[in-house]
Design a protein that fits this description.
Elements lengths: L5 E2 L8 E3 L4 E3 L5 E2 L2 H14 L5 E6 L2 E6 L1 H12 L2 E2 L3 E5 L5 H11 L5 E2 L1 H9 L28 H7 L2 H11 L6 E2 L3 E5 L6 E5 L2
Parallel strand pairs: 1-7, 3-6, 5-8
Antiparallel strand pairs: 2-8, 4-9, 5-6, 10-11, 11-12
């Protein structure tokens, strides 16, 4: 008797879909995720379905992840466990160039996950922007004179992510079911999983 194929249920729809092997991680080890973190997220996907699309930058036919690295790792893990991964819903985000794409990654990743300090600093140095305009948890750019060199405060970073702050953030995210205009930035959220992110308003 053949083994039953284990499938992943899709719980959201978009106009574009890609195979998992077409999607390429863009930010590297920008955030620290343990194997336990990945397995917990994989369990959520099995229970609730894949409910948040990937946000993708189409760089000349190379589909780079701007948001969804954790979901990518969870799906890749499930694939090793014998699950069949369907074509996945994606949202194509426009970016003028790699600098613009990197900035979008920073903006999309300022809520969830634990930042890798060294990688984040190295990553940010590639941005020729005014760092004082960035709002990233654990980073203090207020005293930066040279726009190419961010200032990192490790004491702030160590206090940013606690069990209580994560719970509080998740409760706060539940409020964002619709776009909220905040001036220079617009807060958006997935109506399914309440994942929140900010995009700069042009």
């Amino acid at each position: 008797m053949e083994n039953e194929v284990k499938e992943i249920k899709l719980a959201c729809t978009t106009s574009d879909y890609l195979d998992l092997d077409q999607i390429v991680p863009f930010q590297g080890r920008f955030k620290l995720r343990t194997q336990k973190d990945i397995e917990i997220l994989a369990g959520y996907i099995l229970e609730q379905g894949f409910s948040c699309p990937f946000f993708i930058w189409d760089k000349d036919g190379e589909y780079l992840i701007l948001d969804g690295h954790g979901r990518y790792l969870a799906l890749d893990y499930l694939k090793t466990q014998g699950y069949s991964i369907p074509k996945l819903p994606v949202v194509i985000v426009e970016a003028e160039d790699e600098k613009d794409a990197r900035l979008k990654v920073l903006e999309l990743n300022n809520v969830n996950g634990v930042f890798s300090k060294e990688v984040l600093l190295d990553y940010a140095k590639a941005l020729t922007i005014d760092f004082s305009t960035l709002h990233i948890a654990g980073l203090d750019f207020s005293d930066v004179q040279n726009k190419f060199e961010p200032t990192f405060d490790p004491e702030i970073a160590e206090k940013v992510v606690t069990e209580e702050s994560v719970k509080a953030a998740h409760e706060k995210l539940k409020e964002y079911r619709a776009p909220v205009d905040t001036g220079d930035y617009r807060d958006l959220s997935c109506p399914k999983c309440h994942y929140a992110f900010s995009v700069k308003v042009k």
